[in-house]
Amino acid sequence: MSLSGLGHWLSVPALAAAAAGAGDDPAARVRLAGAVLVLMVLPAVFLAPLAGLAAARLDGRLLLTAADALRFALVLLVPLVDLTPWTLAAAFLVALLALPWSAVADAAVPELVDEERLPRARRAALRAVYGTAPVAAVLYAVLAVIARTADLADLPLFAAAAVFLGAAVSVVLLRELPAGTAPRAAQWPPLLLFRGAPVPGGLFPAVAAAVLACAAIAAVAVGHAREMGGGDAGFGAILVGLTVGLAFGIFLGPRVLGPFSRRRLLALAVVAAALLLVVVALARDLVVAAFVTSFVGVAAGMAWSTAAGLAGAAADAAQDAAAAASARLRAVALVTGLVAVAALPPAAGALGDHELGSAYELAGTGAVLLIVAVLALAAGLVAFRRLDDRRGIPLLPDLRAALRGEVYTPPEQGAAEAAPRNRGVFIAFEGGEGAGKTTQARLAAIWLRDHGYDVVTTHEPGATKIGMRLRAMLLDKQNTGLSARAETLLYAADRADHVANVIRPALERGAIVVSDRYVDSSLAYQGYGRGQPVDEIARINAWATGGLVPDLTVLLEVPAETGLGRLASPADRMESEPRDFHERVREGFRELADADPDRYLVVDASLPQQEISRIVQDRIREILPDPVPAGTEDVTSTFPAITDV
Ligand SMILES: Nc1ncnc2c1ncn2[C@@H]1O[C@H](COP(=O)(O)OP(=O)(O)O)[C@@H](O)[C@H]1O
Ligand SMILES: Cc1cn([C@H]2C[C@H](O)[C@@H](COP(=O)(O)OP(=O)(O)O)O2)c(=O)[nH]c1=O
């Protein structure tokens, strides 16, 4: 897969440059390179379903070998024939052969690995197919430099042919190649634009704008590099910037700014790509252009992976629906890409070069990029308006808070709630079923009260009047089929009421609040247990609680089996979940604690009660407003009461 992918991505710039080389003037060169790109995108847009049919009918190994061997021959013939029509035909056929190839290869993956490793195998396959693009770009740039110094203009083409040959040989040498399940019939991308799995409004313009920015650069790069005094190597450098940036951005998208709204992130990434494109359009220096192009790639890549995440999440966890939603996004990308590479090179020629002022000359390629930047910017702003899920919350403070790793609460919402905080102490007990939370919370409260503290013990779910009704709904075994999202929101609703009516008033008074369960229970049960996105649940709960986080969370750790074994009363709706659910919950708690060791005390809950409570006391002592050395307690057997701080 990697070799075939590398061959494919290497043949794109090699063929584009070969075609461009036949042009007499700059505009013709850009048009010819654009024609190659159009011909290489066309099959994916219009012929994908046919390729799927062919793949289903032919023998897998034969097809893979033949497709690679044919591509070897096609690319090899380009420099030998050296006629533009043949170069263009070869470009089309090379891209056409890629379709049945990937249909067969994709279908073989589930046959080669077991169920459990399938998601990883699929990711690896994706990396092999798309991750080779930046590698190919680097390789192309290097080959273009060598080609120029050694006067071997066709070197990149020969290299691409050789890689295809290597791919064909490696398929022949494969010991085992399962017949594979019949490849799924692909949908026709243009149709997917208009119907298919629902995706959030605003997602299409955002994806289209991100793709447009990248496709525009790719479409005019041959000419744009030449305007700045670079040859094929300059073209290669821009492609390196673009593809490496894209790969990095796709990787970053789901990983940056955890507390920040994904929808806002998507729109911001698109706007950033558009603004950076302005710099690429106006750059007069190849190094600057290639460098800034890489940031366009990063922004567009982040937009792409964020959009894919949103489309998948909107599909409500159903695997098929998620696949259908991402197929629609791919269709938008393909069609936008095709339109861009078809329309922009001729547009660059038609616009021609313009004098701006006396010293600055804007080339046609730059002018096209500038227009695209404006379009992308407009699309980004539209996407922002339609996607924004934090309306009324100013963007900059929201972003600044996210950079600090927090969720922003606006002053009017947070002031009453957040400001007087810090007077009391908030301690939460967390853990799986029967870990001993209730027992330990009670023992800690007794100990604190003994020492004169004002202590409020409480629990979730169901500490308030409304909360008790929510608890009844949540734990009644009769309530089957409650959706995971509804469950999350009900727990969050209980928590919001709990914080507003019990916890905050107590903390403001200066009391010590000891709660049996808090936000982490939702992250562990609804997140890790039910498999919903943990960061989203964290966001919902940050909003529900106005950002209230415990000063200390005591995690009582016990194997699910042991904990469940301790329970006497008949199992409620949550307790009667299967064993592996509870194991995931335990694992989830563990990960949460590992991520923030300062806030957690993890205790082995299989120890005797007294011992646990001693460990807990030692830790609580450290965070009390007026820390008192452990010895004092034994000497005076009293503790200072803190009523004001
Ligand atoms: N450290 C311990 N070792 C053995 N049994 C315990 C321990 N802590 C609590 N238990 C018992 O386990 C049961 C469940 O404890 P509980 O505090 O209600 O757990 P949780 O609130 O976490 O569900 C109770 O019967 C309790 O007496
Ligand atoms: C607070 C909370 C509890 N739960 C579950 C865990 C428990 O199985 C159930 C009720 O909690 P609880 O009665 O406190 O259980 P235990 O006696 O084991 O401490 O609700 C969640 O799934 N999410 C949450 O946010």
From TrEMBL:
GO terms for molecular function: ATP binding; dTMP kinase activity. Residues 429-613 form the Thymidylate kinase-like domain. Pfam families: Thymidylate_kin. The keyword rRNA-binding does not apply. GO terms for cellular component: cytosol. Keywords: ATP-binding, Kinase, Membrane, Nucleotide biosynthesis, Nucleotide-binding, Transferase, Transmembrane, Transmembrane helix. Gene3D superfamilies: MFS general substrate transporter like domains, P-loop containing nucleotide triphosphate hydrolases. The chain crosses the membrane at residues 32-55, 62-81, 87-109, 129-149, 155-174, 202-222, 234-253, 265-283, 289-310, 331-351, 363-384. It catalyses: dTMP + ATP = dTDP + ADP. InterPro entries: MFS_trans_sf, P-loop_NTPase, Thymidylate_kin-like_dom, Thymidylate_kin_CS, Thymidylate_kinase. It comes from the Bacteria. Its EC number is 2.7.4.9. ATP binds at residues 431-438. GO terms for biological process: dTDP biosynthetic process; dTTP biosynthetic process; dUDP biosynthetic process. It is an enzyme of class 2 (transferase). Belongs to the thymidylate kinase family. HAMAP family: Thymidylate_kinase. Phosphorylation of dTMP to form dTDP in both de novo and salvage pathways of dTTP synthesis. NCBIfam families: DTMP_kinase. This is Thymidylate kinase.
